[in-house]
């Protein structure tokens, strides 16, 4: 078709391509930083994949060389745990007592006198929140927003004079501070 030699035709094609690229240069330059960052991230992720694949192959090869521990030192099983004391020492030694006759005292029902736990036969609820003495910390947290500062102070006084549970005292004290700051 063309009588011009091949190298001349290639050179002409190169010139046309250069002119086309020069026209597209403003659009290409605008996207260059995004393209460069994208390429760098692709290379970085591929390098991480290659390193991880090598580590997995290395683990497989090295696992065959190490002896397997029968029971690893960090493993703890139920059989290894110490037994907990019963509610009353010697209660299991008495056949006249069954599980229902054992008395378990929860911390919530154990008032403190001079810093020591003591038994109480009757625990009354504070007027500010009936049933407070049997609430969990999560249940109390849900109820605190509806109480006034005076009611929270009443709960704090009740808590300090009865069970004295540190998480409850802290939560009630923090709520009083929040309400006073508002």
Automatic annotation (TrEMBL):
InterPro entries found in the cross-reference section: LipDrop-assoc
Composition bias, Polar residues: 117-126
Region of interest called Disordered, as start-end residue ranges on this chain: 111-130
NCBIfam families attached to this UniProt entry: LipDrop_Rv1109c
Name of the protein described by the UniProt record: Lipid droplet-associated protein
Organism: Actinomycetospora rhizophila
């Amino acid at each position: 078709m063309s009588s011009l030699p091949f190298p001349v035709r290639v050179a002409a094609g190169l010139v046309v391509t250069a002119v086309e690229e020069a026209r597209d240069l403003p659009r290409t330059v605008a996207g260059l930083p995004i393209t460069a960052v994208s390429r760098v991230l692709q290379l970085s992720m591929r390098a991480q994949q290659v390193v991880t694949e090598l580590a997995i192959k290395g683990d497989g090869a090295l696992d065959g060389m190490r002896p397997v521990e029968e029971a690893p030192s960090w493993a703890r099983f139920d059989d290894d745990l110490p037994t907990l004391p019963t509610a009353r020492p010697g209660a299991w030694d008495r056949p006249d007592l069954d599980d229902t006759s054992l008395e378990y005292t929860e911390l919530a029902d154990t008032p403190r006198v001079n810093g020591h736990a003591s038994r109480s036969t009757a625990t009354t609820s504070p007027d500010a929140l009936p049933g407070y003495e049997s609430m969990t910390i999560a249940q109390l947290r849900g109820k605190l927003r509806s109480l006034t500062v005076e009611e929270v102070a009443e709960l704090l006084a009740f808590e300090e004079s009865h069970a004295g549970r540190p998480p409850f005292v802290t939560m009630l004290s923090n709520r009083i501070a929040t309400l006073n700051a508002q």
